[in-house]
């Protein structure tokens, strides 16, 4: 019984959702225009973090709900990172970092994403700033992996 109470307390502390998929008002910002995102990134001196996901990927939903949505909503991250989602295989049109028209699926292929969830961090010109985070990895350390990737992107953008 003590373990059950401790587990419930841990779930509530981490903010892990106990229900199904996110509601309509509770989603990551979907990629639409990386050129505009890059301009915002220049102003903020912040990297662009992209979650490559699939609608049928349970682990993608966990990454969104447990880690990225709380970051997106947290004012402390507002000027620290720009978070976007790209659906692998989608034909939805987007604008690439260089201003060219493409699709979400083509953007994923160009960035060699074949496993979801994959998180990549880009600089203001659309260059990767470090190693991608592929899969959910070890859930206990995932937030740390995200923090390290954001920090590395920030260092590269700011030249420090």
Overview of the structural elements:
The protein has a single domain, classed as Glutaredoxin (3-Layer(aba) Sandwich), CATH 3.40.30.10. The protein is 44% helix and 16% strand. The chain is built from six helices and six strands.
CATH superfamily: Glutaredoxin
* SSE pattern, N- to C-terminal: HHEHHEEEHEEH
Report low-confidence residues grouped into runs of 5 or more: 1-25
Q: What distance separates the N and C termini?
A: 50 Å
Share in β-strands: 15-25%
The assigned structural class equals alpha+beta
Radius of gyration: 16 Å
Write down the overall mean pLDDT.
87
- CATH class type: Alpha Beta
Global geometry: globular
Task: Describe the secondary structure blueprint for this structure.
Layout: H1 2-14, H2 34-44, E1 48-53, H3 58-73, H4 75-78, E2 82-87, E3 93-95, E4 101-103, H5 104-110, E5 118-122, E6 133-134, H6 139-158
Parallel strand pairs: 1-2
Antiparallel strand pairs: 1-5, 3-4, 5-6
